[in-house]
Amino acid sequence: MLSTGALRAHLLAARLAGPVATTRERSLRRYRLFAARDPRVLLGIEPDGDWSLAELLCLMGERCGVSRDPGHVSGPEVIDPERTIEALDAFAARLGEAAAAGAPVLIGTGHPHRLLGFYAALAAALSSAGCPVLTPAQGRSVDITTRFGVRTYQLGYERGVALVREPGAREPGSEPGVHSHSPLPVRLALAGAARAGWGLPRLVIGDHGWVCGAGQLGFEAMGLADADDPAPFVGQAEGRLSVVVPLDDTVRSEYYQPLTRYVLNRACLSQ
């Protein structure tokens, strides 16, 4: 089993925590957009509070370990590895509870190029433990507003993990899916599950719009988030998300493998 010390060393070496690739400038820009309730950064969360920039800095300092000083305006963002490990422990505990209960789960990612392997391993372990891993509304179209205008994508699944992809993008060697912040895919999946009699998930796992959109609708949701994405942490603070793990969500996909082993071992699940 990967020790806590070895995990901490890996987080720092892989720049999953500590000084990360996310810049302070990007974080502050997105915090300001969130404070202005810009839908591009809300990720499906409809905050109860007003959440000023000062309040967001305080929250993100508490949950991620970023600087709370508004005068700190440049350089790499910093995530406290101790907060990452603490959240991974909570994530693993909830995963183990879901597995013990045989709870149906829905897993989705807006970062398929980086995080698909992490989530797919969770899906396989939960399925082996007797949890139904739901895959509703597969192939359904969803229109998502992007910086290039409204684009039509298809809801798909890779190894039990929901994602969106370009229509007709399943040729050999094609990318598994596209990067997305939108909560629309999870709404489509949940509506499809209800209509088709799949049964609704008791737990939604993922990132971006997948967890924020599900949490906003009242489903228990937990997942991963970078320091420049305040929405999941606000959702957690307001009681819509149960666990949010702070880490860089854009490093090489293989760098998440030790986290997978750590979480599954802590949850008493085999990979």
TrEMBL record:
<dbReference type="Pfam" id="PF15698">
    <property type="entry name" value="Phosphatase"/>
</dbReference>
<dbReference type="InterPro" id="IPR031423">
    <property type="entry name" value="Phosphatase_SCO2771"/>
</dbReference>
<protein>
    <recommendedName>
        <fullName>Phosphatase</fullName>
    </recommendedName>
</protein>
